[in-house]
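Throughout our pipeline, every protein is held as a single compact record rather than as scattered files. This encoding replaces a full spatial description with a residue-level series of whole-number codes. The remainder of this section carries one protein's record, kept here as part of the documentation.
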Amino acid sequence: MRGAGPSVHAVPLLATSAATDVVCVRSAHPLDDPHRPCPVCLREGWHVNGTVVHDLSAVDREAPLASLLAGALLPVALPSEAPSPVRLLHRDVSGPRVRLKDERFGPTWSYKDRLARVAAADAAGRNAEVVVVASSGNHGAAVAAACAAQGLSSVVLCTPTIAPPMRALVLGVGGHLVPVPTVEDRWQVMDDAVRELGWYPAGNFHVPPIGSPPHAVEGYKMIAYELAAQGPLPDWIVVPVGYGDGLTGVAKGLLELAALGIVERPPRVLAAVTASSLPDALEGDTPPVTTPVVAPEALSIACPQGTVQAEVAIRETSGAAVVVDNAAAHDARDELSRQGIFVELSTAAGLAAVDVAAADGIMQEDEEVVLVLTSTGLKDQLFERDQDALDPVESSLDGLLAGAAALTVR
């Protein structure tokens, strides 16, 4: 795709009043359980995540941007942190001017630290004893580190081929790695742990995917707030997208900036994806379905099925989604590396998406773009082809408990 205009199905991510603190991003139906899909949309064949409701009066109208940066519209109270830097990318090709929002400087060197920080604080506020996530990459490492900072126990359900740098990060901060045979097995075991053990979910565990819990997704809004404070906002913000947590959070932050009058018009968001699922859904105004992945080496975003939350985020900002293949992602990473910017292949797919969007006429040559650099290349599994695989546990709750036998509640 191609750009997307407003849809009769989409409601604003900017929910400001409801009977509960979470509503469906599509139907605005109040959700009693923020960790489950909207039951109203499920009956219509849509698997949809929620979004957190906010009272905009909580923002100091005398200094609204400073208030946002201080966390006025976050679901948890957190100490302020220094913003991630922004730098200009010098390119030899014609096209939009690109700046880089460099997210490689967090505790685990990826923008997943944004989500994990809020998720762990929310879990602590709900008196959760254990936080669980299904991940073999940045998400799991970020959650383990954030939980350690909150004094919480964490369990990371991974695949047996998890890369050694990820293993080291999770274990190094006291997380518990439990390998299960397949990606789908991870989600089933995680669902059982949430349902039967009361563990707090810090990521998606649904089939079809809906995305991470709404309170956790809120962490990504800080990227939008920081960009507003770091200079004029661009025409576009580009985010590599798997299940659309980062894209959704950034889009929601932009919509809040506009609602508060801080910016006149929010930038449009561009999703860099590796399958046509999300673009096809935008084209047909339908739920995303499974489609072939054309960039399987972009591991963090090699997702065959998109999410409705990403679809809504794109529609609400009149954005777009474009598909990037392996070759384009590698070329983009080579371009970034030549300037001393080493990122994982999934991150580089965002730069490739800029070129695709420009070639397709979605972006104009005189437009300004900010690309979110989502992670360092140091953890990329592509550089760990010869690692030894872990022995998986049985795909069941008993297997999980056996694998996490050393788990102690902090």
In short: The two ends are 47 Å apart (CA to CA). Residues 183-197 form the longest helix (15 residues).
